[in-house]
Amino acid sequence: MAHNQKLILELLKIEDNDECADCGRKEVEYASYNLGVFVCSTCSQIHRSLGSHISKIKHINLDYFEDSQLYNLMDIGNRKSKLEYEKRVPACYRIPRYNDPPILLEQFIRAKYERKEFSGTILPAYMSGKVETFLMKKGKEDNRYFPRKFVLNEADDTLRYYVKEDKNPKAILRVSELNVVFARQWKKDMVHKNTLQISYLSPTNSTRNLFVYHEDAEVIVNWYHSIRCSKLNYLQIAFPHANESDLVSILTRDFAKEGYLMKTGPKPEDKYRRRWFTLDNRKLMYSIDPLDGYAKGEIFIGYKMDGYSVRPGVAENYRDEGFSFSLFTPERIYTLSATSSHERDDWMNEIQKIIERQLSPSDISLCSRLIRKRNTMNFLPGR
């Protein structure tokens, strides 16, 4: 037993065996001895859920490995396994890391070992260019969900959804202009675990959020990748000389940070109100509820040389609400407050990263659209 334990530890020193075969985490604690891979504790739980007919899991330090099991680990290992089980991962597919949404990680592992999507020759459904499914969609004005037919058609760059199948679509969206993320479960009674948040700029230049889910996690993850694949194909046609890796990096973007902050209005005497904030690239959006269809306000965060900065504390004459900080823009000062110094510093650090980055052409286009929105809307005090 001691001999086998020593050999296991030696195997962990081999390159690629020292990190999880599925998520890349460095804390490897388990091995799937029939698949011949080393995994972390989180991924080991997913492996167990696959069933022992697919993956047989043992703890590296607490369990004994038979000679045959040990030889299998020696013969395969993480590198060889990846060459087999990930040899045909589509460019548009998001290979998750340990800090990515759990649903994405689970479905990646199931796709690898259970469905063998990346080692076979059959084209995955999300690469077909057309998808039709009924999804549960949250109402714009309330928290109820209703079944809606969604149709993605890569050929004309559209995503349509229908209230009634025999009627005209309720909305027609351009897939190339969408962003899609896995919604976080801030309110478990309101947010289904398989929820996607689909965002886009409406004709009025306001960010519209659609929240949809499906009971089957595979279906919703396939929808996520269908959107990514359609966007990649569109971008490859629009920019034929661009590097594929550069295009893949802009297919979808997770929010840099989300959470509640206290916010006051433009006047020193304005009261603080609790708002849900989302930092989406250069857009800092705030709303009353995390599941609001539209943001109550959107702040463009520009480059530091153009008059943007973030600082702890409040401007003169403004009331400090605990752990406050101020966002300075050319138009006004936004006074915000977090619940702790750690949370305040996190928000400031993420905003500062954006301020340090020069504007891209797409950033300039976004800025102009948000400016047009401000110039055409009626000003509401305390927004």
Write the layout of secondary structure elements.
Elements: H1 2-11, E1 28-32, E2 37-40, H2 41-50, E3 57-59, H3 67-75, H4 77-85, H5 102-114, E4 130-138, E5 145-153, E6 158-162, E7 171-174, E8 179-182, E9 195-201, E10 207-213, H6 217-238, H7 244-248, E11 257-263, E12 273-280, E13 283-287, E14 297-300, E15 309-312, E16 323-328, E17 333-338, H8 341-356, H9 361-376
Helix pairs in contact: 1-3, 2-5
What does this structure look like?
With 383 residues, the protein is of the alpha+beta class. Helix content is 29%, strand content 25%. It has helices spanning 2-11, 41-50, 67-75, 77-85, 102-114, 217-238, 244-248, 341-356, 361-376, and strands at 28-32, 37-40, 57-59, 130-138, 145-153, 158-162, 171-174, 179-182, 195-201, 207-213, 257-263, 273-280, 283-287, 297-300, 309-312, 323-328, 333-338. The strands form 3 sheets. Strands 7-6-5-4-10-9-8 form a 7-stranded antiparallel sheet, with helices on one face. A 7-stranded antiparallel sheet has the order 14-13-12-11-17-16-15, sandwiched between helices. Strands 2-1-3 form a 3-stranded antiparallel sheet.
Number of strands: 17
Mean pLDDT: 91
The helix content is: 25-40%
Largest sheet: 7 strands, antiparallel
Principal-axes geometry comes out as globular
How many distinct helices? Answer: 9
Helices and strands, in N-to-C order? HEEHEHHHEEEEEEEHHEEEEEEEHH
Radius of gyration: 24 Å
* Range of strand content: 25-35%
- Spans where pLDDT lies below 50 across 5 or more residues: 377-383
Strand order of the largest sheet: 7-6-5-4-10-9-8
Overall structural class, as computed from helix and strand content, comes to alpha+beta
Q: Compute the separation of the termini in Å.
A: 67 Å
